[in-house]
Amino acid sequence: MSDDRDDRYALADQLRLPPGPVRLADLPTDATPVLDGDKAGGQRALAALGEELADLQERMYAHAYTGGARRVLVVLQGMDTSGKGGVVEKAIGLLSPNGLRITSFKKPTEEELGHDFLWRIDRALPGPGVVGVFDRSHYEDVLVHKVHELVDEPELERRYEAINAWEKSLVETGTIVLKCFLHISADTQRERLLARLDDPDKQWKFKPGDVDERQHWRDYQRAYETALERCHTDAAPWYVIPADRKWYRNWAVARLLLDALRGMELDWPAPDYDVAEQRARLEADSDA
Amino acid sequence: MSDDRDDRYALADQLRLPPGPVRLADLPTDATPVLDGDKAGGQRALAALGEELADLQERMYAHAYTGGARRVLVVLQGMDTSGKGGVVEKAIGLLSPNGLRITSFKKPTEEELGHDFLWRIDRALPGPGVVGVFDRSHYEDVLVHKVHELVDEPELERRYEAINAWEKSLVETGTIVLKCFLHISADTQRERLLARLDDPDKQWKFKPGDVDERQHWRDYQRAYETALERCHTDAAPWYVIPADRKWYRNWAVARLLLDALRGMELDWPAPDYDVAEQRARLEADSDA
């Protein structure tokens, strides 16, 4: 267990989006709040969270076995190359796959398009006791759709409201919704796209369409500003993770998740059977 | 990378169920074929597989991005406490959560019962490039259902055939189906159930119904013998994993999965775009 329970909410306080109008240009992409150090230190700090993360994850999972409804939904959003997949691999990878449900949202299918935008999202929610992770999410429907003007303003307005109502319901019924915007600079994106082109092991990750989308960088930043502002609620606030440094980004998401799980204050559930009686049954059963 | 490519199929050869009538009592639960050593050595051997497993998993995932259809389905079966969850946590946990789909099959829902037994199984299959893991599976429908006589013999016969045809189709369309029976002794099960009762952190895993089911141990062994025998096909053979030692069990499943992935001989896919052209586009785009 780590020894830093005193600063339980220090990170959340620092990364939580401030209230009011959002200007992403004013929020740092390369800062490392709360965690001093460098890459090696950050990777060690991340690894050090693993044991407690897995322990608390299992406690939540155990509670679901005895009727508990608590669960966590981590929503990862960010520009291409901001590291959503990297967070899943390095931070979420510290948890046990048993109590995880990860959904990577792609372009909607025909069937999905036949329903309102939250339909497919709803079907991907984690069950009781499970940590769910969305790699992209319902926010794409107010980002891509706004940038490419696929829907009009009244429809966007309707969606912000629908998102807020939907997330509020989740929270009211036992889910912690941890929304992380992985914030990178345009320069970082270019460097990472170039790195993909340079490395034969990574060329598969590159799509020419990524460069097309990059032409809309400022429009996307504006769409994010509106979405973050409109959907920053008490029930489900946004956290803005400086994500130019991968080691910081991974640690910060893992640490926010750890803090969320700690906040549930879950003991191991008490058995709903008589332990001595069951022990006697098993011991009598000397050879099945 | 490990240095043991020479014995690529040595483990598979040893653990593959022999042809002919199956007698589980003749198959060891506490042996450690191919891997000499002890718990600490076994855990090191398991950890040593992680890097290559994740690398090959990512190659398969990359191929799906460029139209590849290859994928792997790991089917985990075994008596209560045989370690299906432990294999997921310790062996499958070495892979990246990005390209994993894990399904733990519980008692069917009303909707699931409204369809043939393979309906819900089919819906849980991994997509292209993904490693799927079934913690329990369609085999429950020829195990629990046989032991508790929930269906008659002709229906069981129909199911064995249906399973074989279904698995054959999967294999023919690009899936490796890796079926692992985690084989423990009745004594090991009793010890593990008692250990759950003794540990307040594990009492939630214990259900009095586990002791009831244990009364049917011999019936379950017989049901497994028939299922293993009837569904041991060239397309999708069974592997019997000695599972009394957790460290061996975890290593053996990881190693069989590694051998399966190696067998695909996947290079990184070649880019389907002009690298120099894309690099020029990005460099021209000095400030998005």
UniProtKB/TrEMBL annotation, chains A, B:
InterPro entries linked to this entry: P-loop_NTPase (IPR027417), Polyphosphate_phosphotransfera (IPR016898), PPK2-rel_1 (IPR022300), PPK2-related (IPR022488)
Per UniProt, the keywords (alphabetical) are:
Kinase, Transferase
Q: What positions does the domain Polyphosphate kinase-2-related occupy?
A: 38-265
Q: Which GO terms describe its biological process?
A: polyphosphate metabolic process
The entry lists its GO molecular-function terms as: polyphosphate kinase activity
- State the Pfam families in the record: PPK2 (PF03976)
Query: Could you tell me what this protein is called?
Result: PPK2 family polyphosphate:nucleotide phosphotransferase
